[in-house]
Amino acid sequence: MKADAYKIVDNVYWVGVLDWDIRDYHGYTLDGTTYNCYLVFGEDKVALIDNVYPGKSEQFWGRIKDAFEKEGREFKIDVVVQNHIENDHSGSLGEVVAKFPDVEVYCSKKAEPGLKNHLPELEDFEFNTVKTGDTLDIGGKTFQFVNAPMLHWPDSMFTMLMEDGILFSNDAFGQHICVSERLDTDVDPVILTDAARKYYANLITLASPMVGRKIDELAELGIVDNLKMIAPCHGQIFTNPEFIIDLYQKWSTGSYEGNKITFIYDTMHHSTQRMAHAMAEGVMSEGVKVKMYFMHDDDKSDAVTDVLDSKAIFVGAPTMMNNPFPGIGDVMYYLNCLSFGNIEKKKAVVFGSKGWAGGSARILAANLEGAGFEVVEQMEIDFKPNEEILEECYELGKKVAQLIKE
């Protein structure tokens, strides 16, 4: 397949894949994504930074060939830097090794067994493992490696191209977005921020305590002062690194601006739904922004994106056979996985309708406490809410809105 490489700076090209059609990736809903990888031409060697998802390499090879033609160089990859083992970044490594048997592959020590597990054809391949501070010179182009465990897997690492100030950050600082242009400046800043926020909420939240420490470490290594671009493995390349670094520092510490409460609920016969709507009216009466997610139809990856920069959440579900209505279960498991308590102890309210014994609110409260939330109120009613109950719901929403404003 013929496809064009995109020149980032002299001797450095984007040679990734535009996956226009993907709509779901490990439970994350998206409208396409990119698998970014990069080709760096040194005076002595040519290095490939990461590669692409299995079965998606047609564009990848077309762009690599185009880059070699533009540079007028012999078609030969000498080095692969494998920043992460997950399939969307390593799936075509076996193809690269088969085509260039003498290629040298560099990865973190933790990545080596994972790569051999993912790619059985490389079980006997000799990898070069590197650690923070190690460097590799390919002739006028020097890579400095930085281990970045849990950003976002234990094996993850960053690679800095020193001469050009480009940080190849793999999954960190990424976005699941697919547009025809490659740079941050080519996309509306609001769209870019929303894509980066959703990515952080779904993939990086668990590692929030490590984000600030890693940025400090990059500064100590002299990388931040030399940083001109951040080139992640998904989405747009940042020509203004401060933009995304500032966002990560805010999201990882909970220092966002404004007051917002996110509602996450499901309903059986509309009683819990009516409670949610009445509570939301109370919240809005205090000038606090509301985001509503009806889990009968809405997606959990969108819901948790708004949880990221909310100061409180309201979670509602009716009781079904002594347990929360199952429609809320998926997002509850997901909240527990993401551990928003790593950022801050957000306040939470649980509510719902019951027909007899009840139990949903108690179970939801315990689950949320375990996920790092501070449950400040529980409200469970019998059957349908009357006007008096709906007014109580309104007042509860108002009360919690006042609480977060304080």
Structure description:
- With 406 residues, the chain is of the alpha/beta class.
- The chain has 2 domains: 6-253, 4-Layer Sandwich (Metallo-beta-lactamase, Chain A); 260-401, Rossmann fold (3-Layer(aba) Sandwich).
- The chain has 12 helices and 23 strands.
- The protein has helices at residues 57-71, 87-90, 93-99, 111-118, 189-204, 208-220, 241-253, 271-284, 300-308, 329-338, 360-370, 387-405; strands at residues 6-9, 12-14, 17-19, 24-25, 28-29, 33-35, 38-41, 46-49, 79-81, 104-108, 128-130, 135-137, 142-147, 157-161, 166-170, 229-232, 260-265, 289-294, 312-316, 319-320, 323-324, 347-354, 374-382.
- The protein has a 7-stranded mixed sheet with strand order 1-2-7-8-9-10-11, with helices on one face.
- Strand 14 (157-161) and strand 15 form a beta hairpin.
- Helix 6 (208-220) packs across helix 7 and helix 8 packs across helix 12 (387-405).
- This is F420H2 oxidase FprA1.
- Residues 261-401 form the Flavodoxin-like domain.
- It comes from Methanobrevibacter ruminantium (strain ATCC 35063 / DSM 1093 / JCM 13430 / OCM 146 / M1).
Helix and strand arrangement:
Layout: E1 6-9, E2 12-14, E3 17-19, E4 24-25, E5 28-29, E6 33-35, E7 38-41, E8 46-49, H1 57-71, E9 79-81, H2 87-90, H3 93-99, E10 104-108, H4 111-118, E11 128-130, E12 135-137, E13 142-147, E14 157-161, E15 166-170, H5 189-204, H6 208-220, E16 229-232, H7 241-253, E17 260-265, H8 271-284, E18 289-294, H9 300-308, E19 312-316, E20 319-320, E21 323-324, H10 329-338, E22 347-354, H11 360-370, E23 374-382, H12 387-405
Parallel strand pairs: 8-9, 9-10, 10-11, 15-16, 17-18, 17-19, 19-22, 22-23
Antiparallel strand pairs: 1-2, 2-7, 3-6, 4-5, 7-8, 12-13, 13-14, 14-15, 20-21
Helix pairs in contact: 5-7, 5-9, 6-7, 8-12, 9-10
